[in-house]
Please model this.
Amino acid sequence: MIGLLLYPNMTQLDLTGPYEVFCRMPDTDVHLIWRTLDPVTTFPALTIVPTTTLAECTALDLICVPGGPGQIALMADETVLRFVREQAAGCQYVTSVCSG
Model:
């Protein structure tokens, strides 16, 4: 399973580019992950809906953290950092795009 971290003020292309590639891989589940299932507004104004939450996300094989202006606040978010650390421990790949 592949998970892409979705967060406010991220650069949407940093998420949607990898998403397009991963979704075309056979037999692959791809999830957009955030705190809630409420829509998240990217920078500058595209709204994307998560498919799972941080709390409900199962073990990932690959995690991808996109970049963007919102990553500055994300670096101080202990809940998100804990999630990434815990997922990364069991992932085959930990990836990021740009400043993610």
